[in-house]
Amino acid sequence: MSNSLCSLLEIGAVEEVPQELRGKGFYSRYFLIPKAKGGAGDMLRAYSDMREANYKNADKYFHARGNYDAAQRGPGGKWAAKVISDAREGWQGGISGRGAEDTRQDQEANAWGRSGGDPNRYRPEGLPSKY
Description:
- Pfam families: SAA.
- Major acute phase reactant. Apolipoprotein of the HDL complex.
- Helix 2 (36-53) crosses helix 4 (75-95).
- This protein has helices at residues 3-11, 36-53, 59-71, 75-95, 99-114.
- The protein is built from five helices and no strands.
């Protein structure tokens, strides 16, 4: 078994498929990723809210909130939030022109939310309460 898979098993982000479920449904033959889909939805909702709000200096809040909401679903949601955040920052870092410091700050907010930190730490004054 690869070191990556062992690491995921250790932190509870993946689990082995129970013997009684093998051969039923669609999944990797090695593991299930519990609640990752819901975590991805949380990330999408935070991104959609950020676009809708179009509020200056609110992006770190939405980064933290999406990661926080996804992580509340458990290890699968936390895993989805990390994968999506890392992919987005990797992509953005190469083309946005915002630079390494913005990416570092985004990743700080992502990690804060994923670790259970209150997203309101990054909430800008005056952001409408619906967010």
